[in-house]
Amino acid sequence: MTATPKRLEPIPLDAMTPEQRNVAEAIMAGPRKGLRGPFNVWLRSPELADRLQKVGEYLRFNSSLETRLNEMAILMTAAHWQSPFEWYAHVPLAIKAGLAPETAAAIARGERPTTMRDDEAVIWDFCTQLRANRTVSDGTFAAAVALWGERGVADLIGVNGYYDIVSMTLNVGEVLPPEGADVPIRAPGK
Predict the structure, then answer these.
(1) Is 7 exposed, middle or buried (0-12, 13-18, 19+ CB in 10 A)?
(2) Between 18-29 and 46-61, two packed helices, what is the crossing angle to 10 degrees?
(3) How far apart are CA 62 and CA 64, in angstroms?
(4) Could you give the CA distance from residue 19 to residue 84 in angstroms, rounded to a whole number?
(5) How far apart are CA 126 and CA 134, in angstroms?
(6) How far apart (Å, rounded) are the C-alpha atoms in residues 184 and 79?
(7) Which terminal residue of the chain, N or C, has fewer Cβ atoms less than 10 Å from its own Cβ?
(8) What percentage of the chain exceeds 90 in pLDDT?
(9) Which of 61, 79, 97 is the last residue of a domain?
(10) Is 155 exposed, middle or buried (0-12, 13-18, 19+ CB in 10 A)?
(11) CA distance linking residue 48 with residue 6, whole number of Å
């Protein structure tokens, strides 16, 4: 259970419009099984919520990238945006998928991890360059294509962009982890 957001209180199911309720039920019936994270904010615009949740379902549960690498990219996005709920929600998934806790800790500090595997170093370079330069170098692009093919590169770009909007939504909606959760990053201005 998350702390009550300071903005945009959760909409009870019985108070939702038919469009909101349809989207909420689709989300709850899918692999997420609930309306945590950005969904309460997005339900204010049901069509947006529906379209984004479908993209998110693909990127989280069906991406061509190995889960460990996908989750590393998500953690890098959460750290970039200083989105504590996103970190809280995904760090256990990343560790369970095989990301070293030391790697996650370095990401939270904004440092290049020293314990990365070779494929994780490509994720680090790709995501870091994409955020800093709004593109990636030829060498990083070639390394990513060699590891994951063009589909993997497209999925990696997608996971970065999707979790940008998730993190922005969580920060603006002030969706925070439960009180007392050990999260090494803080929301902007907190």
Answers:
(1) exposed
(2) 10
(3) 6
(4) 29
(5) 10
(6) 9
(7) N
(8) 85
(9) 61
(10) buried
(11) 22
Contacts of 142 (CB under 8 A, 6+ apart): none
pTM of the model: 0.94
Task: Please count the structural domains in the chain.
Answer: 2
| C-beta separation of 10 from 40 below 8 A | yes
Encoded tokens for 121: 């170093």
User: Taking the alpha carbons of 108, 162, 90, 175 in that order, is the dihedral positive or negative?
Assistant: positive
Domain range for 50: 17-61
Per the domain annotation, does 119 fall within a domain? yes
Return the half-sphere exposure (C-beta side, CA atoms, 13 A cut-off) of residue 64: 14
* Calpha distance 149→97 (Å, rounded): 21
Tens digits of residue pLDDT in 49-88: 999 999 999 999 999 999 999 999 999 999 999 999 999 9
Instruction: Tell me the longest C-alpha to C-alpha distance in the chain.
Output: 53
